[in-house]
Amino acid sequence: MKYSCSVLLTVLVISAVMGSLCWTYSINTWLVFLGKEPIIKWYQGMLIGCVPYLGQISLPVAAITWILMLFLI
Fold first, then answer.
1. In principle, which of 7, 12, 53, 62 could form an S-S bond with 22, CB 3.0–4.6 Å?
2. Which candidate, 61, 62, 65, 21, places its Cα nearest to that of 44?
3. Distance (Å, rounded) from C-alpha 57 to C-alpha 12?
């Protein structure tokens, strides 16, 4: 039972760290591309990363954003 709590906490921390990096990059990149000011802070990306489904897709979204920006900019 104690291992399940530590595994859940580990997954949550990893999702938060990945969210703080990937969501901040992805959202701010698209904002700059659209001519807006990049306003998303790292802690806002971390909170988005803690949401169950959004935390899991942060890395593919960042990769797709990076690939698209290679061709769009």
1. 62
2. 21
3. 14
- Quote the mean pLDDT of the chain: 90
38: left (phi over 0), alpha (psi -120 to 50) or beta: beta
Average pLDDT of 17-35? 94
Instruction: Establish how many alpha carbons lie within 13 A of residue 51's alpha carbon, considering only the half-sphere containing its beta carbon.
Output: 9
3-class secondary structure per residue, 11-34: HHHHHHHHHHHHHHHHHHHHHHHC
In the chain, the amino acid numbered 2 is K
Q: 3-state class of 53 per DSSP?
A: helix
Each residue's pLDDT tens digit, 45-61: 999 988 888 888 999 99
45 neighbors 23 (Cβ within 8 angstroms): yes
**pTM for the whole structure:** 0.84
